[in-house]
Amino acid sequence: MSKTILSSSGPVTLLGGGHASAQDLTDALTIAGTLVAVDGGLVTALGAGIIPDAVVGDMDSAPPEALARVPPDRQHRVSEQQSTDFDKALRSVDAPVVIGAGFCGGRVDHQLAAFHTLLVRADRPCILLAEKEVILIAPPVLSLNTVAGDVVSLFPLLAVQGCSRGLEWPIDGLSFDPARLVGTSNRANGPIHIEIERAGMLLIVPRGYLTALVAHFVQGGARWPARAAPHISRPSPSK
């Protein structure tokens, strides 16, 4: 069970150690002014003149001189190596939605690991900033005021089905599977409405919809429940 290191009634920004432009920070912090630096993301935050509200991670990428500028009670070291620093931070932040900057671009393996965390922590909505798009696990139900021609990509991380209105190629009746069928480069005909049967579908839309997506979660829109902890059977002790 994860310890909550920061709780907020509003959206929170997570800043990772990957590439994050000045525009990324501006866009994220304008909407979600509480900032959590994820390990090496501390260097980026300090470079922008910002002392984060918290720093989370194993701290192997946060230089001692950078940590020295952050009050000790804002530093939260999680030393286990079974999860990424992004996972450590996301599971430790209690907020209606998180904006993640510094997790896309750069190394492909880091991006894949970030998408894995989005799936594993689907009950903690997180919207990742890419250069031109935003990426998130599609919630159970979502309506978005897209305009005709907007690219709406759906990429399954698990076998999953859904239904839609407003897409040029409706998804009703399709069985998405990462090894069989994906839904990239679909397009909106106007406003869209999407319903997904279970957490497992990446939704990728133009970056201009960041504010609307944040509002969906802040205003109590549909989200996924926490995954049940796996049941582990243990043999009875010998008599």
UniProtKB/TrEMBL annotation:
InterPro entries linked to this entry: Thi_PPkinase, TPK, TPK_B1-bd_sf, TPK_catalytic, TPK_catalytic_sf
Any GO BP annotation: thiamine diphosphate biosynthetic process
Domain Thiamin pyrophosphokinase catalytic: 32-119
Protein transport is among the record's keywords: no
Protein name: Thiamine diphosphokinase
Record lineage: Bacteria, Pseudomonadati, Pseudomonadota, Alphaproteobacteria, Rhodobacterales
Enzyme class: transferase
Keyword flag Transferase: yes
GO-annotated molecular function: ATP binding; kinase activity; thiamine diphosphokinase activity
PANTHER family (UniProt xref): THIAMINE PYROPHOSPHOKINASE
EC number(s) per entry: 2.7.6.2
Superkingdom of the source species: Bacteria
Gene3D superfamilies in alphabetical order: Thiamin pyrophosphokinase, catalytic domain (3.40.50.10240)
Region annotated Disordered, chain positions: 62-83
One Pfam family linked to the record: TPK_catalytic
Provenance organism: Sulfitobacter guttiformis
Ranges annotated as biased composition (Basic and acidic residues): 71-83
UniProt entry keywords in alphabetical sequence: ATP-binding, Kinase, Nucleotide-binding, Transferase
